[in-house]
Amino acid sequence: MTIKQPLVVEPIFLVGAERSGTTVLRLMLDHHPKIAWCSEFEYAVDKISESGELPQLDEYYQWLETNGIFQDSGFTIDRSLSYSQLVNSFLVQKRDHAGKPIVGAAVHRHFDRLLQIWPHARFIHLVRDGRDVARSSIGMGWAGNVWTGLERWIDAEKIWTQINSIIPAERQIEVKYETLICEPIETLKKICEFIGTSYDPAMFGYTETTRYDLPDPKLIQQWRRKLSDYEIQLVESRIGTMLQERGYELSGLPHLTVTPVMEQQLKLQDWWARVQFRLQRYGLALFLADYLSRKLNLTQWQKSVKVKMYDTNRAYFK
Predict the structure, then answer these.
(1) Which helix (H) or strand (E) holds 123?
(2) Contact by Cβ (8 Å): 257, 230
(3) Do 114 and 14 touch, CB atoms closer than 8 A?
(4) How far is it, in rounded angstroms, from Cα 193 to Cα 113?
(5) What dihedral do alpha carbons 312, 19, 152, 16 form, nearest 10°?
(6) Which long-range contacts (CB under 8 A, 24 or more apart) does 203-210 make?
(7) Which residues pair with 15 in a beta bridge?
(8) Closest of 180, 194, 196, 184 to residue 127, by C-alpha
(9) Closest CA to 16 of 154, 115, 144, 114
(10) Is the pLDDT of residue 13 over 50?
(11) pLDDT of 235-284, one tens digit each?
């Protein structure tokens, strides 16, 4: 029997660290009359191993059952497809459901693995000042201080550094969040040209259907107002060189040397702050259920807990 293989016309991926502005850019792209864009497409690559081994399909199907973002997508699973064909079919479903000729997706981690499935994909790399990303990560409950709040930014930027040298120049474009916010129309025109279409004012229609506002220059360089000098020094001690390589000026504050003892203290503080955040967000019962189900490796209980936690998060962001 011949296995069906749905086709995607030149998939495009928006990559960058979480809290880098990928959501607002994705909304802009998705509101273009000719562009459909998937959110949080990590479920296409999360289960691919570091060595490039694709997941077993039965295990992948089960994992998708508790992946809230996939469940919200409404995509169907065609079990006659191979893994690569299956994740490719999700993009096809997005494109066809939207009735638009161009499709893309946002991916924040492991996006180097996308090339294994879509070797000719194009990439939009969005980068934001890591000092603002670190601050924002605390507010999301992902980190307890700016030192650990840099983890996702560092990981994403390191991956991009690894792959951008092997992606032909015509298949990649780099965009600064700060430029997108301060010069949105000109920036979107360049992105649309890269994608192969024309800018359309409808791209700002997302303000009518989401809780996101129009680009506001007040959103950039918030670290200058919201971080203490010590926090700025912590961040710059870790990623100062990376910031400069990406065109961001340092604060000019004295260099801070973080000793091993200080780093251990920061990690302990991070752990305690995240515990407190999760207790406040999920309540003691759900917090303990999550811990015990994982500790005891009770699969069915874990599935139930994951669904409840995702529902809690979804309600929080409405």
Answers:
(1) strand 122-127
(2) no
(3) no
(4) 26
(5) 120
(6) 203/28, 203/29, 203/31, 203/32, 204/28, 204/31, 205/31, 206/24, 206/27, 206/28, 206/30, 206/31, 209/31, 210/27
(7) 107, 125
(8) 180
(9) 154
(10) yes
(11) 999 999 999 999 999 999 999 999 999 999 999 999 999 999 999 999 99
Structure-token match 């203490």, residue found: 228
Instruction: Take residue 228 and report the two structure tokens written for it.
Output: 């203490």
Which uninterrupted H or E stretch holds 102? strand 102-107
The total number of residues shown for the chain amounts to 318
Maximum distance among all alpha carbons in the chain?
A: 68
The rounded distance, in Å, linking the Cα atoms of 65 and 243 is 39
> Which amino acid is located at 131 in the chain?
R
State how far the alpha carbon of 187 is from the alpha carbons of 123, 243, 308, in Å: 15, 21, 39
How do 172-176 and 102-107 pair as beta strands?
A: unpaired
The model's pTM is: 0.91
Lookup: tokens for 53: 């081994």
Which residue in this structure is represented by tokens 């207790």? Answer: 279
Concatenated DSSP letters of 127-176: E--HHHHHHHHHHTTS-SSTTGGGHHHHHHHHHHHHHTTTS-GGGEEEEE
Q: How many angstroms separate the Cα of 158 from the Cα of each of 154, 184, 202, 267, 289?
A: 6, 26, 34, 21, 35
DSSP for 24-47, please give it. Answer: HHHHHHHTSTTEEEES-GGGGTTT
At 165-218, the pLDDT tens digits run: 999 999 999 999 999 999 999 999 999 999 999 999 999 999 999 999 999 999
